[in-house]
């Protein structure tokens, strides 16, 4: 997708176009270790996804180690197996992605849409209500009891839709920084 850019003067390229060409230049010699600093900066949503897909495929195909620094949490969620969170030179967390979530997200979010109004005050006994605006209800429940809580909701309330979700990764990372727990 960069062939048409090769004849354009660098100063006339957008940031996203320069990012794509810089990645091509970095990969010319098929490095076994790839250092990428904010690889999706300057890219639109489609470009960001294409860049993530490309990095993922490059890693898979070439068995390369990819060291990625990013403020874009989608990059973390979609590309990282191991995560190192650093604050002012101090390592706050070093481990696999799943461990990061397990350690700093002790709860899950249940989002549901009720089919009809009723005694929805009873739902407060199941979890911490984050939003209660009929028909939408958002609850926070302990990670260990999320499935039981969802089953209880489905048994006792007329539900059109229910999902169990992780808390947003931005919140998980915020908790790492707030806790400042070194490992």
Architecture overview:
- The protein is an alpha+beta fold.
- The chain folds into two domains: 3-80, Rossmann fold; 107-165, Alpha-Beta Plaits (2-Layer Sandwich).
- It has helices at 15-27, 45-62, 73-79, 97-104, 146-156, 169-179; strands at 33-37, 65-69, 82-87, 90-96, 107-114, 128-133, 136-142, 159-166.
- The chain has a four-stranded antiparallel β-sheet with strand order 6-7-5-8, covered by helices on one side.
- Strand 3 and strand 4 form a beta hairpin.
- The protein is elongated and about 65 Å long.
- The model has no long low-confidence stretch (mean pLDDT 88).
- One of its GO terms (molecular function) is ATP binding.
Identify the notable features of this structure and list them briefly.
Rossmann fold, two-stranded parallel ribbon, four-stranded antiparallel sheet, alpha+beta, Alpha-Beta Plaits, elongated, 183 residues, 8 strands
Secondary structure layout:
Layout: H1 15-27, E1 33-37, H2 45-62, E2 65-69, H3 73-79, E3 82-87, E4 90-96, H4 97-104, E5 107-114, E6 128-133, E7 136-142, H5 146-156, E8 159-166, H6 169-179
Parallel strand pairs: 1-2
Antiparallel strand pairs: 3-4, 5-7, 5-8, 6-7
């Amino acid at each position: 997708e960069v062939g048409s850019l090769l004849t354009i003067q660098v100063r006339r390229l957008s940031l996203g176009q320069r990012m794509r060409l810089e990645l091509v230049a970095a990969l010319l010699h098929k490095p076994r270790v790839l250092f990428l600093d904010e690889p999706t900066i300057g890219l639109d949503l489609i470009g960001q996804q294409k860049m993530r897909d490309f990095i993922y495929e490059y890693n898979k195909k070439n068995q390369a180690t990819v060291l990625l620094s990013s403020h874009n949490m989608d990059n973390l969620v979609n590309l990282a197996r191991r995560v190192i969170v650093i604050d002012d030179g101090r390592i706050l967390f070093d481990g696999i992605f799943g461990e990061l979530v397990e350690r700093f997200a002790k709860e899950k979010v249940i989002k549901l849409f009720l089919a009809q109004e009723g005694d929805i005050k009873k739902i407060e006994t199941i979890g911490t209500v984050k939003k209660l605006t009929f028909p939408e209800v958002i609850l926070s429940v302990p990670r260990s009891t999320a499935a039981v809580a969802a089953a209880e909701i489905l048994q006792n309330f007329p539900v059109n839709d229910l999902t169990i979700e992780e808390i947003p990764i931005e919140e998980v990372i915020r908790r790492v920084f707030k806790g400042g727990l070194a490992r």
